[in-house]
Automatic annotation (TrEMBL):
It is found in: Membrane. Belongs to the glycosyltransferase 6 family. The keyword Flavoprotein does not apply. This is Glycosyltransferase family 92 protein. Mn(2+) binds at residues 217, 219. Keywords: Glycosyltransferase, Manganese, Membrane, Metal-binding, Signal-anchor, Transferase, Transmembrane, Transmembrane helix. One of its GO terms (cellular component) is Golgi apparatus.
Length: 353
């Protein structure tokens, strides 16, 4: 029996269940038994376009529901969680919409790794390095090899206008690096705008083909372990300059004519656009939506105050992240460090070119 999970992606699963609902409400099962599976499976994954009746497929679906979804691993030992003991008394660890906020001390990476390994997912990282910024790639990739997702399958997707220079940078032998050539741009604003477009188009073209995707700026240096705790459906990082600030001091776009506009009495947090993550589907939705908003602004002669970051913040206000990373994840040495910043994990803003 081929497992259903091999046949269906997330979309396929939804389509099948939708298919069943439509089918059962509009025709009897007997009627549908005589239909070719092809008709039904147009709703689902192409791999299911095989000869078989609806009955066979329904039976297959029912059987596979009872199978364990992921590989089983030997159990691991860890300290029992104590429900009466908060993971932090200093900081918020869950938002009002029930998204966890990841701080050092709030998670056990061994448990997370064990759970992740059962699912056997690949993690992609996109990074853009155009113009003189290609020189930052070496420290980005070398530090990622040392601290990022150790023990997991990682693919780096490097976008650059100078692929020949990038090829010379050596990366860890167990990791793949795909280099995609992009056009050169004179202005930074153009680069920020293009990134959103390139990302959603390449996800659609399957040039980026992973389960989880992390989108990072090249002027980041990994300083301590960053693991699967940063993965989730839609994950954003708190900005170190603003995490203690009130919403009226956030540098959101305040021009009501811009697509990125956020009124002064709205906003949860100020997120940085230089490190975000999610499933590839969620990153597709985010980048496509931001790209559309940036282009609408462009056609009206508007450039949002912090470019893609303004649009990113607008998107996340109305599509709440399912996980938030503390500023430990993207720290800037220019910010006064207080006691809640226990482990600086990634450093931003040291452009040593
Ligand atoms: C003042 C300003 O605009 N700040 C924006 C910029 O902060 P930053 O001042 O940190 O921007 P930056 O210079 O790091 O540029 C952002 C990223 O674009 C890429 N890049 C940029 C220029 C270039 O010539 N070549 C190149 O490859 C590279 O990946 C870089 O890390 O970026 C953030 C997104 O991450 C936000 O959008 C910020 O609002
Ligand atoms: Mn930067």
């Amino acid at each position: 029996m081929i497992r259903l999970r091999n046949l269906l992606g997330c979309g396929g699963r939804v389509a099948i269940s939708l298919g069943l609902h439509i089918v059962l409400s509009e025709a009897t099962v007997e009627q549908w038994n005589s239909y070719s599976a092809v008709n039904v499976m147009k709703l689902g994954d192409k791999m299911l376009l095989r000869n078989g009746t609806f009955k066979e497929i329904k039976e297959h679906y029912d059987t596979t529901l009872d199978e364990p979804p992921f590989k089983s691993l030997p159990s691991i030992q860890y300290i029992k969680p104590d429900i009466l003991k908060p993971s932090s008394t200093e900081v918020m660890t869950v938002t009002p919409w029930l998204a966890p906020v990841v701080w050092t001390g709030t998670f056990d990476r061994d448990i997370l790794n064990w759970e992740f390994e059962r699912k056997n997912h690949t993690i992609g990282v996109t990074v853009f390095a155009l113009g003189g910024y290609w020189k930052l790639l070496k420290s980005f990739l070398e530090s990622a090899d040392k601290f990022f997702m150790i023990g997991h399958r990682v693919i780096y997707y490097v976008y650059t206008d100078q692929p020949q220079k990038v090829k010379c940078i050596s990366i860890h032998k167990d990791r793949k690096c795909k280099i995609y050539k992009t056009s050169s741009y004179d202005s930074k604003a153009r680069i920020f705008m293009q990134r959103m477009e390139i990302l959603h188009l390449d996800i659609k073209r399957k040039l980026i083909d992973v389960h989880y995707l992390v989108c990072a700026d090249v002027d980041l240096v990994f300083h301590n372990d960053v693991g699967v705790e940063v993965l989730g459906d839609l994950v954003a990082t708190l900005h170190p300059w603003f995490y203690r600030a009130n919403r009226d001091s956030f540098t959101y776009e305040r021009n009501p004519l811009s697509q990125a506009y956020i009124p002064i009495d709205e906003g949860d947090f100020y997120y940085q656009a230089n490190f975000f993550a999610g499933t590839v589907q969620e990153i597709y939705r985010l980048t496509k939506c931001c790209d559309k908003a940036i282009k609408t602004d462009d056609s009206n002669g508007i450039v949002a105050v912090f470019h893609d970051e303004s649009h990113f913040n607008k998107y996340l206000l109305y599509h709440k992240p399912t996980k938030i990373l503390s500023p430990e994840y993207i720290w800037n040495w220019g910010v006064h460090r207080t006691s809640e910043i226990k482990t600086v994990r990634i450093i931003h803003g040291q452009k040593d070119m």
